[in-house]
Fold each of these.
Amino acid sequence: MIQLKNYINDEFLEPIQNEWLDNYNPSNGSVYGQLPNSSLEDVNLAYEAAKKAFESWSQTSLEKRSAILLKIARLIEDNLNRFAEAESKDNGKPITLAKSIDIPRAASNFRFFGHAITQFHSESHETKSEKTINYTLRHPLGVVGCISPWNLPLYLLTWKIAPALAAGNCVIAKPSEITPYTAFLLGEICNEAGLPKGVLNIVHGLGTTTGQAIVEHPNIKAISFTGGTETGKIIAKTAAPMFKKISLELGGKNPNIIFADCDYEKMLTTTVKSSFSNQGQICLCGSRIFVEASLFEQFKTDFIERVSQLTVGHPSNESTQVGALVSKAHIEKVLSFIDRVDSNGGKLLHGGKRVRIKGHEDGYYLTPTIIQVDSNSCHLNQEEIFGPVVTIMPFDSEYKVLEMANDVKYGLSATVWTNNLKRSLFFSEQLECGIIWVNTWMQRDLRTPFGGIKSSGVGREGGFEALRFFTETKNICINYE
Ligand code: NAD
């Protein structure tokens, strides 16, 4: 049994009230470890450490802060296999994915913000006629909270921690209680990299107790949160009256719009990925596929064939393309959508069944699932399933598909497949979401703003947007007459 501990003030501590949660291995349904279910007392301890560290961290030179972040990045890379194995075991994702995407990206997050902070700048404005010069300062906020979900555990946690630290803040981070393992390992790396004590504190526990205690803490200045829309509402409700800064990255129900004039082979290969990577548990997956009517039958046949070739298997197996879903509760939730397909006017075209892997029969495996729907208003197209389930539907006019793509409460991302330049510009302008990919999916440049609109969130992460979020702006006006 692995016993994870809180990382507070450079030390690995047991929860003060000695309350623990079980940690499950989704590949076989067994409990393989325990993690703290931290209370307000643990959060307070972390806060005191962070507050104390802030005085010196916020005054530390950019070169030194940057060098420490770059060292953390290097150490994550040096420990790639260890991190990837932990992530795959905790989350059920294929080891190949953890090694090629999750962990390298966690290192990139630290490297990127280690460099970005040295280029971060503020503005100055001179008005000669009035003999004034305005200049703007950007100060770190103080102690901030970073709360992250289970689907890309270290990748998303570090996407918040790195800019917060780079900007001179001290952090209390809470990873998902479902996937805490790599966050625990990160503490060891931070010690080795020479991050001063108290600058980063990682507190484990349930959202409703530990997470809520962080959000409610009167002196934690900002909350950067990624997770479900309903949780986002609770966080906003708690934090808004306290006038905290909040950044919310929430759910999605992203359209993937395919026109007959697209590069077919590239579209097909990418659409298999955008549908089922990480078992469909990526907020950016294209879960509503709309295909131009003239291409629909061909697409349907080819897509089913490609998807049926995906290997569902144990995450540690190098040939596995689709691993286990993250938890028993989650696979049951996904199956409940599939069970209601017929009553919602859908037609199951492929998958929809639990897979029993020999020797790991209690693991949470599901065949990638394709459902044909005849209306965008059905719950399969309106609710976030967040699993290996996509719907497909034909369309016969640009205006109709645009209307359907936008007719959903979410607005995170969209993909458009077309070789018509005017059409790609029109759709890019008209689609109601924060991120649009044209003829590609999930190509990420960390300098770009990342986030959604409508029920997909508030604020943007990435590049200088993240550094702006983690700093407070002060304008100074000097008259030099
Ligand atoms: P979740 O909302 O259940 O939990 C996310 C985190 O919030 C966890 O650490 C949890 O412990 C914590 N939490 C829960 N209740 C809380 C509370 N009251 N106060 C403070 N913290 C609380 O989400 P999840 O199931 O872990 O993740 C899946 C969701 O995340 C999906 O909806 C997915 O779309 C979304 N997501 C969004 C993005 C994005 O960038 N927009 C990225 C990844 C995942």
Note: The CA atoms of residues 77 and 250 lie 29 Å apart.
Amino acid sequence: MTRVVAVSNQKGGVGKTTSVVNLAGYCALAGKRVLVVDNDPQGNASSVLAQGLGDKSVYSGQAPIQSRMSGLAVIPASRDLNERERSLSGGDGRLSLRRALAPYVASFDIILIDCPPNLSLLPINALLAADRLLLPLQCEYFAMEGMAQLLAFMEDLRDEQTAAVELLGILLTMHDAGHPLCRQVETDIRAHFGERTFATTIPRDVSLAAAPSHGQTIGEYEPLSPGGIAYLAAAKELIDGLER
Ligand code: ADP
Ligand code: MG
């Protein structure tokens, strides 16, 4: 059964795109048929997995494009994504992404939707198209407040629209075990969310920041780096979590 996963957090720079690209790469290596939908006008996932922005977005009928990696397809973002967003308002417009993806769902095992850092109609469309939410979280105090807002927002959507989306998991990113505040946030998150927190944490690792400048996933660029090893383990957890 296909699982559609929105990767969202309204905060920017927390590792959403890094997680989408690298988890997608490792899931494809594990033999899954993976589609990445770039739902962020910044198009960062598109620059790693496609040749940058496309002519049209998923909302304008862009079909999946095979990436250079076997088993990994991508629907890139496009310049019109920002303008498109205005046409997405209203009850029906919020289901645009779900409708646009419907013809492709059966062709994939896992669909990962990268989201922009806000709670605009683009992430709303992603949450209403998804069965699961993956929430990358940087280990810092304000991140927890942002997360509470996103989870409350998801609950509202579920009530309003009978959306099916459930929290799959929280992935702690840019983790620094030597930092007391980071450890405290991790302890709090694990106490509150239990098994819905990924056991794997993603360390701060310059290789993860460098890989995109070579247009590569960490699995292509430096699989044996701490970040590469961590994303491989996180991808295994993702696959297990989606199969449960
Ligand atoms: P978002 O999509 O949430 O805005 P990104 O994935 O683009 O966040 O990450 C923000 C920046 O931090 C990027 O420059 C990225 O390369 C870098 N980055 C992401 N994760 C890590 C990490 N674990 N260690 C070091 N740098 C990271
Ligand atoms: Mg991003």
Note: The chain has ten helices and seven strands.
